[in-house]
Amino acid sequence: MEPLFWQFVNRTSETEFIFALFHLLLACLGLLIVLSWLRKRLAGLSRRAQSLLAAGFALFALQFGLTTYYLADDFFFGRLWNRVLFLEIAQALEGAACLHVSAGLFLLFKPASFQRAIRWVIAGLVAISLVLLLDGMLASGAVTPPNNAFHPWAVSAIALVSAAALGRTALLLIRLAERSAHLSVLALVLLFSSVALHQIHLYWNSRWSAVGWHIEQHLVSFGLVAFAWALGERSANLFDRVFVRLNLTFIVLASVMILSTVGMERVQYAKLTEERSLSLAEFLRGHLTYYRGKGEDLDTILQHAEVLRRIVVGFGELPDFRRLEIFLGGEHAVFFYHPDRTMTEEITARTRSAPEIQQLAANEELPAVTTFQMVHLPVHSEHGSGDWIEFYGGMEHLNQHLGSYIVVIYSLFTIMVGASVVVVGIIVRNADQSIQKQHAEIEGIERQLAQAAKLASIGELAGGVAHEINNPVTGILSMATHLVTKRRDTGLTDRDRQDLELIAREAQRITDIVMKLLTFSHQSRMEFVFADVNTIVENAISLVQLRLRNTRIVLKRELARGLPRILCDLNRLAEVFVNLMNNAIDAMPLGGVLTIRSEGADAGMVRVAISDTGTGIEAAELDRIFDPFFTTKEPGKGTGLGLSISHAMSRRRPARAAPSP
């Protein structure tokens, strides 16, 4: 059996199929992200760039889908259709996908360069079309090549177009020096490296070519992962980012799990077939040594009935046994066991040395390996003699065995992934809604803080202005009052006396406004006592009772009994209630219902609600109702300080219930 390292890095049909399926899922994930962008019409993202990216990932998905179907047909059913046609179509799709994705990615970061990006795409597509046309013309007059034939120059030319597009876009994005482009540059560099490595080991005639192929596939995988991650991070939606990361994690885990499981199963299967075929190998080695010692050549030895009979029986006993090779004394014998259960034998005088066998040509574009080595047994104990026995098994039974594992593992993992995505999606969706709600609350708090800062600054200004106005106004009020109350021998006429009374009233009005400004600016001292809230409400009602006369307003009291006493400033709280009721009365000029309700709240608190059936206020003006001097009333009918003062009083120290004895 081959060493463990070569068992895992062999380019076998199931490994090719798993990588193709892995790449198909990643390409579909990228396409799903871009289609989601197009559906949501994300602001800040060029629609043209999104369309180019969608076309590019659709072409990638088409290429990997074609590859997956081609390899699955070979792996599960043993059918291998025209490989030349497959290679040319796959390479052309890959080149077109690289052109669209690179142009779309560049346009995503430089939306103004649309004409430049389109020229790239058109020029690249024309170059690919010319290569395919020229390749078809050169091959049209030739004999139809076998399935394992290929045209390296055509494949190399198309890959060169892809590498040029990827490399140029990576350099342009690096020049932009945008932090958000780092993942995209990494994806482009990885895909560029995979294309370059493909060109290197395309002409690399060595067993290590399989290692190069594995590295190339991993570079493609990491490039597609980086692409999907970069696209997901462009979304501002938390659910989109988590969805992309979850799917990337599940896809990578599933692929690693299947590759590891299939690799271990292949190793175990090869070890089991080696153990089952060792008895035949030992039988042949013993007879070869014995008859060789008698001087017989390989052809003569194989003519012995017991040797030939044992080989035929061995082919029948071992279902995977397909080819037997014997190297002895410069001669080479090969026995083939065909699917129709016939056996053919070839004996030649040409032999190959052990180093040559260990470095058999492994052309990159040939079909996947269809046989595996079961036994490699030296005929003689000394090394370097060049005489050995090799058994090779067919991949039919092994592929069926591994195919069942792949189907079962992918099916179970898909079910688990689907359930996990649903559960995590619900959790993330709730978290996203909660975050959005908290964001709205934070914005509301910020507005309140701005309002508080504005009120504080206005309050300080109002307090200073009120003190400056209060002194001269007090003098004017005192003098006007004195002149009005003076005896009639002063010679004042009735007209003079009316003017003085008007001056006194207006001065008193100014004094009232100044006192309200002092209250708003927190310049007056508040005295807190425990009181019954219903009593305060009744006192406030008595102050507005005169305004309710001769109106069509109905006053409704809904005062709960047995409420706890509250700690408050009696006069200030009554003023708050009076201001609110005055506003309600002003809002119902044609009549309505004014309702005053008191009730107990949680944690021993008391709630007082004042409502009316008036005209209300526009929603656009709700944020301004506590601004000083803001009013919707007609000029001369309101100062705009009632709600501001009430708001300032309630924020200074809210009334709270007294503790229970």
Rg (C-alpha, Å):
46 Å
Largest beta sheet: what is the strand line-up? 3-2-1-5-4
What summary fits the major beta sheet? 5 strands, antiparallel
Indicate the proportion of strand residues: 5-15%
Structural class: alpha+beta
Q: Average pLDDT across residues?
A: 75
General form? elongated
- The number of distinct helices, counting runs of at least 4 residues, comes to 17
Helix content: 55-70%
How many beta-strand elements? Answer: 11
Q: H/E element string?
A: HHHHHHHHHHHEEEHEEHHEHEEHEEHE
What are the low-pLDDT stretches, counting only 5+ consecutive residues below 50?
Answer: 141-150, 351-368, 654-661
End-to-end distance = 92 Å
Walk me through the structure.
The protein is α+β, with helices and mostly antiparallel strands. 65% of the residues lie in helices and 10% in strands. The chain is built from 17 helices and 11 strands. A 5-stranded antiparallel beta sheet has the order 3-2-1-5-4. A 3-stranded antiparallel beta sheet has the order 6-8-11. Strands 7-9-10 form a 3-stranded mixed beta sheet, with helices on one face. Strand 2 and strand 3 form a beta hairpin. Helix 9 runs antiparallel to helix 11. The two termini are 92 Å apart.
Summary keywords:
3-stranded antiparallel sheet, alpha+beta, 661 residues, 11 strands, disordered C terminus, 5-stranded antiparallel sheet
